[in-house]
């Protein structure tokens, strides 16, 4: 029960409360008395323990109650009875305690009722006093509120002034930031932003306008980044467009510097020279020095007109952008973007035009763009910190260098003009020298030049092959005629010819060689000059240049000139006289090789006695050409002989000879005589010419006689020839006699004894055997070194006897056969021939078995 004194809701009197408490205590006492009797009557130790556990609150009550209900049936009834007895026992104890304190409680209530009257009086007095105080304090409260209001306003004004003093610098700095943004002073604007963020904004960070400013700064930074990036893109586009101009300027500067250095070196070398001249009363001065001064003056004038890379390109956008990104702390992003874009531009620059190889301007434009690109990168490397590093430029250059070499190697392979290749070489040298001046390694470019040098030599060889062909086509292949001393000196100035005998002769006279010899000599020297042009400025020693010149000259002699000579020799319209003149020409060209070696030595100042000096292979070249010409002479002679032999028209069944040699053979012999007469009447102003022409004439004569003998023998043994009469044999013998007479008449001097007649010995012995019919001697002496018919082959004799003559003997229908008389007389002679045939077969079989 709850009692709220003085409450309107429970407005109970104090006396009523006392009565209720007394009645309640009495009722509980009665109940506890009755329960106590029952508790005393029933006691069970089992339930006593259960009640003790419930009162202790130490064990869970659920387990205790479960033990009561699970113990035995109807146990809970006994437990309830026991519990009621326990409750009665406690009520009894409570009643005793209440009875003990009841009198004191009643006394306290009585005193409380007495105080009630005084409390009412006090309440009235307090209420009156409070009213009077309220009436007196109203005016004070009004004045106090006015004072408080003024104090608050004063404090607010002071606070506003203080805060404005804090905000004014912030607003001024922000206004300054806006002005800088409008003036495009972005780097200063970023610095102002840093000051705002680090110094000013912390003072006023609690204000809304400051938050708006703070929120606006990132946007301003992004705007600055975008604007600066746009400027950078414009800069990249600008340098891409001006790369060729920048490269052209850098290459001109490098070329001027190189020319100046070369001129200075020449001045130092010529300082102590003797090439002096005096004009009127002028002080003696070297010609080279005067030329040098003039050239240096021109170089100075040119250098004043040459622009630098800073004059051509405004680098401020890249500096500004770099500073902006550095301030923004995003320098790495800027560096990555710049390098990525420049790599893209590098790939575009390194991509050549498809027709670049057609003109030198295409190559020049390609090189100037690359030089311009790397000059800009080198400038950026040296004026910025970290944007471009040496490692990055080296990596970019190595990538570019590989691409450049591949492009040049591919496009130069299409060049067929040596002048274009030479200009390409000069461009590559200037290109390499320019980039080397900026610190880029260019050794691989000079290695490439060696590959291009080989190609240059190939184009030179092709060009000179055409030159040689034109010289050969324009030559008349006859000795050079000269009618006066002036013409003689002109020829001597072109070709190093020395012959004391020719000099002693009076005019008019002839050089032994034809016009092609001095022309070829001059063109070989021109080739050496052309090859030397490529070797200049390659930073190679004189020994290497000498070796290159000698190797290229060897290629010219051994491949180009040799091929042209061989093609000339094999041309159908070249006759025997022309071939003889070609042999003489090659002899003089061979002798001129030593002068070509001296010519190269004078150019390179490398002595021929040097161990590693390459020798010219002209000797073997001209010897091979001479041998080819000699072989062609022999071939053409044989072909001419075959043409005459094909005109032969023998009547193999004639009974009597005509009494004179065949017309075709006499024409052939006359032709051979005229040819060999030409050989013997060639100019022989020295022993070498005489020996050469005599040797060629002797070899040609012997070859012609042997070929004629072979052709006549093949005519007798022709498979289409079925029979031969004795008259035909005698007519054939008359032709062979003419051949022997020709051989014995010494058509070419120099043969010993009957050497030339031995070419017809096989025919002579074979015809003698058949005409004399000396088979017994032939068969008896066969195989003996002193045999009269030693050169008669049994197989040849058997073929002629069996298939040609013996077959005609068997043909009774032919009355003109030389063996008709044997058939009319007796058969013994037939048996003799059959015996000879058998013996010849035996010899042939024996030869085959022996073989």
Automatic annotation (TrEMBL):
Domain Exocyst complex subunit EXOC6/Sec15 C-terminal: 445-802
Top-rank lineage group of the source organism: Eukaryota
Record key words, sorted: Exocytosis, Transport
Limits of the Exocyst complex component EXOC6/Sec15 N-terminal domain: 82-251
Pfam families according to UniProt: EXOC6_Sec15_N, Sec15_C
Keyword Calcium: no
Record carries keyword Protein biosynthesis: no
GO biological process: Golgi to plasma membrane transport; intracellular protein transport; vesicle tethering involved in exocytosis
GO cellular component terms, semicolon-separated: exocyst; plasma membrane
Function: Component of the exocyst complex involved in the docking of exocytic vesicles with fusion sites on the plasma membrane.
Family, per entry: Belongs to the SEC15 family.
Protein known as: Exocyst complex component
Lineage: Eukaryota, Metazoa, Chordata, Craniata, Vertebrata
């Amino acid at each position: 029960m709850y009692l709220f004194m003085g409450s309107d809701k429970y407005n109970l009197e104090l006396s009523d409360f006392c009565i209720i408490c007394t009645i309640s205590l009495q009722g509980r006492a009665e109940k506890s008395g009755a329960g106590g009797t029952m508790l005393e009557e029933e006691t069970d130790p089992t339930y006593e323990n259960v009640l003790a556990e419930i009162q202790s609150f130490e064990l869970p009550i659920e387990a205790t109650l479960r033990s009561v209900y699970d113990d035995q049936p109807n146990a809970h009834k006994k437990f309830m009875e026991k519990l009621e007895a326990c409750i009665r026992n406690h009520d009894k104890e409570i009643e005793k305690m209440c009875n003990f304190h009841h009198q004191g409680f009643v006394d306290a209530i009585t005193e409380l009722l007495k105080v009630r009257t005084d409390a009412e009086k006090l309440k009235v007095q307090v209420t009156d006093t409070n009213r009077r105080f309220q009436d007196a304090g109203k005016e004070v409260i009004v004045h106090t509120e006015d004072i408080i209001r003024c104090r608050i306003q004063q404090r607010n004004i002071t606070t506003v002034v203080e805060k404005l003093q804090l905000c004014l610098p912030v607003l001024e700095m922000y206004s300054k930031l806006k002005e800088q943004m409008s003036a495009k002073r972005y780097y200063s604007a970023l610095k102002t932003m840093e000051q705002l963020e680090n110094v000013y904004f912390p003072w006023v960070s609690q204000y809304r306008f400051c938050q708006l400013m703070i929120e606006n700064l990132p946007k301003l930074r992004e705007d600055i980044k975008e604007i600066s990036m746009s400027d950078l893109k414009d800069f990249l586009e600008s340098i891409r467009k001006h790369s060729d101009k920048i490269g052209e300027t850098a290459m001109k500067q490098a070329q001027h510097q190189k020319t100046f250095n070369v001129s200075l070196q020449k001045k130092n070398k010529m300082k102590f020279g003797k090439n002096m001249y005096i004009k009127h009363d002028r002080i003696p001065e070297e010609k080279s020095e005067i030329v040098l001064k003039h050239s240096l003056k021109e170089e100075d004038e040119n250098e004043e007109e040459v622009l630098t890379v800073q004059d051509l390109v405004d680098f401020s956008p890249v500096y500004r952008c770099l500073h902006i990104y550095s301030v923004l702390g995003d320098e790495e992003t800027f560096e990555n973007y710049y390098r990525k874009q420049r790599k893209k531009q590098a790939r575009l620059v390194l991509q050549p035009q498809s027709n670049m190889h057609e003109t030198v301007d295409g190559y020049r434009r390609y090189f100037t763009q690359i030089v311009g690109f790397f000059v800009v990168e080198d400038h950026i490397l040296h004026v910025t910190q970290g944007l471009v590093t040496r490692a990055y430029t080296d990596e970019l250059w190595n990538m570019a260098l590989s691409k450049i070499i591949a492009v040049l190697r591919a496009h130069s392979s299409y060049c067929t003009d040596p002048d274009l290749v030479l200009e390409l070489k000069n461009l590559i040298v200037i290109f390499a020298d320019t980039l080397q001046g900026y610190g880029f390694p260019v050794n691989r470019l000079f290695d490439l030049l060696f590959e291009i040098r080989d190609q240059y030599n190939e184009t030179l060889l092709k060009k000179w092959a055409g030159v040689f062909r034109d010289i050969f086509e324009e030559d008349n292949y006859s000795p050079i005629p000269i009618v006066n001393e002036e013409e003689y000196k002109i020829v001597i100035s072109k070709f190093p010819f020395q012959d004391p005998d020719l000099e002693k002769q009076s005019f008019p006279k002839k050089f032994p060689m034809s016009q092609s010899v001095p022309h070829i000599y001059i063109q070989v020297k021109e080739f050496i000059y052309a090859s030397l042009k490529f070797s200049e400025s390659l930073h190679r020693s004189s020994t290497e240049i000498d070796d290159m010149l000698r190797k290229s000259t060897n290629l010219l002699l051994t491949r180009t000139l040799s091929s042209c000579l061989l093609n000339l020799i094999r041309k159908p319209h070249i006759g025997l006289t022309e071939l003889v003149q070609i042999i003489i020409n090659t002899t003089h060209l061979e002798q001129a090789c030593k002068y070509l070696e001296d010519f190269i030595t004078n150019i390179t100042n490398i002595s021929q006695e040097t161990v590693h000096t390459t020798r010219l292979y002209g000797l073997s070249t001209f010897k091979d050409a001479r041998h080819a010409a000699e072989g062609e002479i022999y071939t053409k002679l044989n072909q001419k002989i075959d043409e005459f032999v094909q005109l032969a028209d023998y009547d193999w069944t004639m009974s009597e000879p005509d009494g004179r040699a065949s017309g075709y053979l006499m024409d052939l012999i006359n032709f051979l005589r005229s040819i060999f007469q030409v050989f013997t009447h060639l100019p022989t102003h020295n022993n070498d010419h005489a020996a050469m022409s005599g040797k060629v004439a002797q070899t040609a004569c012997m070859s012609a006689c042997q070929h004629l003998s072979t052709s006549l023998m093949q005519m007798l043994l022709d498979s289409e020839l079925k029979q031969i009469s004795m008259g035909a044999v005698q007519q054939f013998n008359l032709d062979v006699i003419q051949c022997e007479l020709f051989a014995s008449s010494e058509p070419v001097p120099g043969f010993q004894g009957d050497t030339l007649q031995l070419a017809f010995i096989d025919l002579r012995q074979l015809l003698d055997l058949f005409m004399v019919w000396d088979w017994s001697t032939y068969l008896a002496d066969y195989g003996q070194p002193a045999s009269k018919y030693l050169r008669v082959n049994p197989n040849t004799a058997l073929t002629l006897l069996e298939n040609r003559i013996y077959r005609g003997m068997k043909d009774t229908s032919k009355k003109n056969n030389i063996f008709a008389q044997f058939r009319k007389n007796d058969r013994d002679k037939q048996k003799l021939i059959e015996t000879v045939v058998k013996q010849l077969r035996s010899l042939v079989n024996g030869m085959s078995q022996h073989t």
